[in-house]
Amino acid sequence: MNNTSTYYAGLDIGGTTVKAVLVDHLSQQVGPLTEVRSKVKDGYEGTFDQLDLALDQLAAGAGVARGAIAGIGLDVPAPSSDGVIWGRANLGDNWVGTDIRGKLSTRTGVPVFMTNDGNAAALGEYALRHDNNGSLMLVAPGTGLGAGLVLPGGRSYEGANGLALETGHISVPFREDDGELPSCSCGLKGCAEAWVSLMALRRRLRLQLAKPEWSSHPLNQDDTPVEEKAFKLRDFAEKGDALAIQLFKQQGFILGYAIADMVRTIDPGLVVIGGGLAETTFRDSFMKWILEGFAERAWPAYQHNPLNPDIVTTRFEWALGGDAAAAIGMAYTACELAQGATR
Q: How far apart (Å, rounded) are the C-alpha atoms in residues 94 and 214?
């Protein structure tokens, strides 16, 4: 095989778009990031058509032949195992029970490597840190609370059923003002995601706006639904608004608290915080709140080396890859795994 003319594609399937990246045999990106509609509600066949379009655009953007793409890394926004999706999530009905990896490999004629979106983003963050040889755990607050773990050497840990690192659904001992544990979208109560997510932000905002102390807040004069008001909270926080800061401070603290239990279990050494908050002007404050929550729950040895207190045992960093992280991670994985199979 002529490695100098071999390329690998990373395809990140989201609910709205497919983001795609092409790398060469050295895992270096070639050409621009490509983005097309995902059409996941139309069934996997409709999305496969879009994946073909993305692959054509990647090849054209890099000035290479489509046939030079020797492997594909694919991530999906749903639970899967061994290439088969077994939870619908936000996908159309016919995704469930389908060997997506096998069907796409047959359609394209090249090997396909598949995982979920959380693992893919973690792999992307690993690939972007050339000086990190240890493990890496990504935790990404968004609509929910996703996570992924990459082991030393660059292999993701998915678990026997593709269900590892469901960080959003570990239990945390925080209660509402009435003493109740909040309900989570998974059906349980008291999950971290019930406190740290866009869904949680909507609930907490609704409860706070009902209090007399916030009766004159601008968001209480806004007639839009709470879902839209929650989207405005970042802008308010960037301007120093007390209510917005209070809500994000609570989320940051609880996130750090939850991460402490994950660190106690897997001891990754490096925790990367992803999601949209990585791009806000108050992200330094948010990281400080995370570290405060972490310090509240983590044993001293998970913070500093007991033999040398100057050595930090668990480092925290913001994500580097932005919206492209998952696609980068899958391109990197396709390159590493495909070349490893030929050695």
A: 47
